[in-house]
Amino acid sequence: MNEPRMLPPSMRPKKRYVIFEIISESPVEFKDFSVAAWNSLLSSLGEESAAEARIWIIPNLYDARKQKGVLRCGNAHVESVRGALAMISMVGESRSIVRGIGITGTIKSAKEKYSDPNLKQYA
Amino acid sequence: MDYYDLHTYSSLTVGENTTDEMIAMARKLGLRGIGVEGLREKPATELDMVSCYIIYAKNPQQLMEDARKYRDSYEVLMVSGGDYEVNRAACENPMIDVLCHPGKGRKDSGLDHVCVKAAMENNVAIEINFREILENYRKRRVRILEGIKRNVMMCRKFGAPVVTFSGAVTKWGMRAGRELAAVASMAGMELPDAIASASTVPEQIVMNNRLKIAGKMWQGVTVNE
Question: Shortest Cα distance from A5 to chain B (angstroms)?
Fold first, then answer.
């Protein structure tokens, strides 16, 4: 056994998945978004709160065509993460707006909502 | 939830984009209504277009004159804050709906407990201006957030209304209502209050003023048909 065992469910920290959409002048790559998001998260939350928030921008759930993706964070930090994402004004070279579309508790439901064309209703 | 952003600028005034571009972006962001400064002729759109006027007064006398002049012509009357005397006069004037960015260009928050008490009594909403936060960085942003948090704390204590608007001068400065609420929540508001500051509070201001302009509401009296 090279890895530590997974914690029992009662000890695992609660998390939420924020589904977001990028509205931008030109299409945005995941790498550029990740850099912009981390800059904004670190400047508004700080290193300590960012560590507490356990943020993970999930690369394989980012849809470059629809400009939508999923970000994981701790359940107590959803609002501050949303606020930090709102502070993003540039992604790469293009002016952008990041809009949260919905919050879910599991990746499965995030995927279900993510593929739903009527995402507006979850906002 | 119906979100309103009543503080935006188009190319009619100092903005970069046309009113149509601002409307298109507001629709993309899921807003229910927007207010574009100086817009009198409302374009045909499914959005609730609100006519807003911002008073840029140098002193309380000028503010009073402008308030009397424009009160009946616009649905929402706002004051560009920054000067303490103007901030206080705006809070003490029941004709004013919103005091925008009271801490603009200042090192402090621009308001004290006397102003906030007066704002509560006269139903003047204090604005959290998103553009101020967005367009400043590092130490300046920290100072602005500090001032906003102080104002929010006083508004919560005295029960003065708070609204959260983008203050956008370009369509890229606009944000969805829920994102504005998240910023208000970062400034120290409880989440339901933060959501109300971008939705029900501005909506109520608009609805009441529409009734007043139509002659169906006076102070303490509403005509029900």
Answer: 36
- Answer positive or negative: Cα dihedral of B4, B214, B62, B42: positive
Of B25, B170, B185, which is closest to A83 when you measure between CB atoms?
Answer: B185
In Å, the largest CA–CA distance within chain B is 54
Q: Please determine, for residue A116, whether its predicted confidence score (pLDDT) is greater than 70.
A: no
CATH superfamily to which B4-222 belongs: Metal-dependent hydrolases (3.20.20.140)
Contact call for residues B185 and A79 (beta carbons, < 8 A)? yes
What are the backbone angles phi and psi of residue A42, rounded to the nearest 5°? -70, -35
In angstroms, the CA B119 to CA B89 distance is 10
Nearest CA in chain A to B145: A44
Structural domains of chain A sorted by starting position, each given as residue range(s) with its CATH number in brackets: 13-122 (3.30.70.3250)
In chain A, whose CA is at the least distance from the CA of B192? A79
**How far apart (Å, rounded) are the C-alpha atoms in residues B23 and B57?**
28
H or E stretch at A97: strand A94-104
Confidence of residue B117 (pLDDT cuts 50, 70, 90): very high
What ipTM does this complex have?
0.88
Give the other-Cβ count within 10 Å of B74's Cβ.
Answer: 21
Tens-place pLDDT, residues B165-199: 999 999 999 999 999 999 999 999 999 999 999 99
Ordered by start, the domain boundaries in chain B are 4-222
* Nearest-angstrom CA–CA distance, B183 and B171: 18
